[in-house]
Amino acid sequence: MPPLLIAATTPDAPGFAALRIESLEQHFNMLRRLAENWQSGKNRFNAPGETLLGAFVNHQLVGVCGINSDPFSPQPRAGRIRHLYVSEKCRGLGIGKQLLTVVMADASIWFDFLNTHAPDAAYGFYRQAGFTLV
Fold first, then answer.
1. Phi-psi region for residue 56, left (φ > 0), alpha (ψ -120 to 50) or beta?
2. Which of 11, 27, 38, 69 suits 21 as a labelling partner, its CA being 20 to 30 A distant?
């Protein structure tokens, strides 16, 4: 695999629209919601501890993952992994794991625990990363 670069990104980045379209074709809505919430200003990943990262291979965006304060948790220091998606052509290469690892790297500074509201199909992935089903 060519070198992987993980860096801050936005839905305005080149390649995001194609990734969003691919995700919709696979019946995943997380990138549609990400783009809509970004455009409306509802979620810009700009509160303390929040970030949105992209995975780039040969300068092409092939995945995204973010972390926010969890708006649904009664715990004030709860973080939520958001919008993790890797292009179908790049799955199985460890890109999702690397995105999640980088997103979580400094999370303990800001959050006491992390959760996600991922689809059932992602349960095994998150379990391997140390998440437990609640």
1. beta
2. 69
Pairing of strands 60-69, 113-115: unpaired
> How many residues appear in the chain?
134
- Per-residue DSSP letter, 130: T
Confidence class for position 134, pLDDT limits 50, 70, 90: confident
The answer to whether 110 and 77 are in contact (CB under 8 A) is: yes
Q: At residue 128, what are phi and psi to the nearest 5 degrees?
A: -65, -25
Structure-token match 């990262």, residue found:
53
pTM of this structure: 0.93
Show the tokens assigned to 6: 């993980």
What is the tens place of the pLDDT at every residue in 68-79?
A: 999 889 998 999
Q: How far apart are CA 56 and CA 29, in angstroms?
A: 21
pLDDT in tens, 83-130: 999 999 999 999 999 999 999 998 999 999 999 988 888 899 999 999
